[in-house]
Amino acid sequence: MKSLFQVICWCSTIAIILQHVSSVSLPLPNNETVPAVFVFGDSIVDPGNNNYISTLIKCDFPPYGRDFDGGVPTGRFSNGLVPSDLVAEKFGVKKFLPAYLDPNIQLPDLLTGVSFASGGSGYDPLTAQITSVKSLSDQLDMFKGYMKKIDEAIGREERALIVSKSIYIVCIGSDDIANTYAQTPFRRFQYDIQSYTDFMAYEASKFLQELYRLGGRRIGVFDVPVIGCVPSQRTLGGGIFRECSNSSNQAAMLFNSKLFKEMRALGKEYSDARFVSLETYNPFMDIIQNPSKYGFNETEKGCCGTGNIEVGILCNPYSINTCSNPSDYVFWDSYHPTEKAYNVLSSLVLDKKIKDFF
Predict the structure, then answer these.
(1) Which residues are catalytic?
(2) For a FRET experiment, which of 83, 235, 245, 298 has its CA 20 to 30 Å from that of 148?
(3) Does residue 245 lie within any of the structural domains?
């Protein structure tokens, strides 16, 4: 009976993959196949995990999801798809990457990957504590729980194969700089920006080593983007002309250099793994500085409401003046890009890096 159940599970997995492979999926080197995609991080890649925990960091209401499949607000912090979905699609796995905490998730969806990300989280454990969301440590615990479920369903050997061949994406760190360090006093009493970014890089390396220990071998890590140029940071730290916050951008660049140095060291230490640096800072800056090149008109305000400060619960069905043309905007709310911007950025960053995972 167990063998029959395993066959049924694998057939279901293959069916799901074939059903969701998109025309935008990229050719993989040496005819490789990817069984699943697993994502860890913050609101950029959270497809709705925060819907199921007690936190104010939520977006499971309109106008979020306005351009998602069926116009449903799923908990994705955008008007449509988010990078976790786009990565799964590019690797030819499926079109939507579900939230692990979704109580309605089914085994075939689990087998092809999920996102453990939680909006408001960070490399710094304090970042998640402040917002009452799932920390990176919590997300690793969820991954361990995931593996136990799969062990029970299809056996440890089959699960180990999925884990070793899958793609892992980490996208986190913006909230550490923009919120925990810049907007609260707690860490500034302990660290200057040099030592705080050292601390972030240490936590990042520790997380990646634990992910390796659990079986991850194809691991891509996004850097912190031009966080000082998102609308909320312009409003809070850009002065009367709402310019980009130089201090936040400089902190992001400082951290990114340390993050990628740690990843190079891990690549040498764990030669059977692939640690892939996914650099967004410069491509995103180019989008902001040259919007017409990518088909955008508005870079300084989000589509929702005034576009200056609304995010999460402040971006809601009663937000006045929400735009009707989000494809003209780089940002959906004051912190998160639109689906179109995510599409453009993911192509700029990921397409040329696919081969590095294999």
Answers:
(1) 43, 333, 336
(2) 83
(3) yes
